[in-house]
Amino acid sequence: MTSVAIVAASAVSALGTGRSGFSVGEIGERPATAIAEDALLREAGLKRPYAARARLLDTDPIELRTGRDRAERMLGRVASELVLELDRNLSSWRERRLLLCVGTSAGGMQSAERVFAERERGRALEPGLARAATYFGPLATASARLGVPPERVIQVLAACASSSIAIGLACRLLELGEADLAVAGGYDALSVFVAAGFEALGATSASLPAPFRRQRDGMALGEGAALVALVLERDAASRAMGYVVGFGASSDAVHVTAPDRTGSGLITASKAALADAERDAGAIDLVSAHATATPFNDAAEARAMDCVLGQRLPEVVVHPFKATIGHTLGAAGVLESLSALDALERGVMPAALGSGPIEEQFRGRLLEVNAAGAARSCLKLSAAFGGANAALVFGKSSSSSGVRIRRPVRVASTGEPRRGLELEEVRARVVSDPARLSRLDPVSALAVAAAGSALANFRGELPERTGVVLGTAAATTEVNEVYDARRRRRGARSVEPRRFPATSPNLACGEVSIAFGLRGPSLASGAGLAAATEALVIAWTLLAAGDADALLVVAVEHVGPVVQDIWQAAGWPLPSVGAAGVLLVGGARGGQLIDPTRVFACHTEACGAFGQVGGAPAGWPSLLKGVEVCLAE
Q: Could you confirm whether 319 is annotated as catalytic?
């Protein structure tokens, strides 16, 4: 990988703003947690109301219920602070080709809760609230403050791995010459909607998280936002905070909410990141762990670290930062990465919060107090709903400065648009139990149908590193309202655990991966109405950079009365109902060659069209048209 320098950063978490939001503290200090009983979650009736609120924002329950969307406020604040940092560190940054690539799990969920309640009362939706209630609603303020146009914004919807994947994508686009400066990161705000779902799944702690300890019983949610400014090492005009030197991604293709017990997917992503960094296990002195403190996740991660780092592991310090700031979901990857970079930069080996016997299977080092130590490299691990995995390697010093060679990308097959799932059509390609397909949520059913149609037109064996990229503007909005209706009417403790996983847009990617046995990178995306062509850009990037050998690109729009009301109030053209898929392959494999300059041109055109009143509908027509436009002559 061509070394990518981090030239500026901004953050907000339960620890504070700026550097205090991700600092590991001083040598000799013990870590402290910002997690405490949350008044709003307790008021909502949750039995396990522990969480960590961002210190930047008001914590009064009335403000939390009625104020402007917290996700938008946090992301806008860190964008403004990053502008000031860039002005100090890279004065020419506005003259460069900019890209914004962020990740989130819930987007504007706080506003969506208000929309669902307003509709239930029979009230008309205000345009501003409608726009804020989408998964991409919080992006508008941040992109405006950074001066990034819509066609240069990517949003990853890969649940808890979102911002780690966003950082990796941003690095790839820099390496491929598609940007001169990339701003990457993630955000998520606490909401009763999400907290109730995790409690219903039995994933939250009855007290405080104890990662990798025998008595661990779950996680506590947090909230936050962080952004990093990235440039190729040769373009850094000032001293870098650190370097991104490796990236890898994979899918478990086993279960949509539980990890692969063997840690196989995380192992694949980690080995890919180390190979990309041209570093072996001996170069890793620190692991920034995903460490949710849930029994199965910690155990799977321990196995992955054991496999990847081997005999080196007992010497490697493991840092579980979620025990300090809570699980910040879409912001977790970037906040934890910044914490690791803080440790590398200042020569601090960070301590791990928690007490009690350590899990026997865990062989890493958990320090009680911060120690002095000159760590060279850090391996960052992330995992998520849908079985998505991501790994990053950070270095105090740079790595290879070579140029990444673009691989050619081709269209191998195109599927027919689908409005529902016909089991017989996909049965020939399905590798999992076909019976489970009849129980899929509506978004996943559409995605599997579209993917199956594209695969039905493909003759040959799929490469091992085949993944899925899903583009969606409406995402899981209809599913979310059905899940949330029970909470509104009967209380937060009444939500149905079986419905909560389907509120993650990334779940559909996991279902496609499981159905067809795809273990390559998997992620959903949607920064706006042009989500279909955005997915095409992401897929081309991963294939051209060599992170996958084939990718199913699927455009999905599940539209019902809720989406209709939101889109009408916002003044947007309604998305086309249904889904379609395209199989892209990288390298010299057969198919029609894609012209990379046209990939970005078709996305720019789509963004412009949707910005006009009465513009073309979003969804699968944009994907199919975009693929046709992108073919080389």
A: no
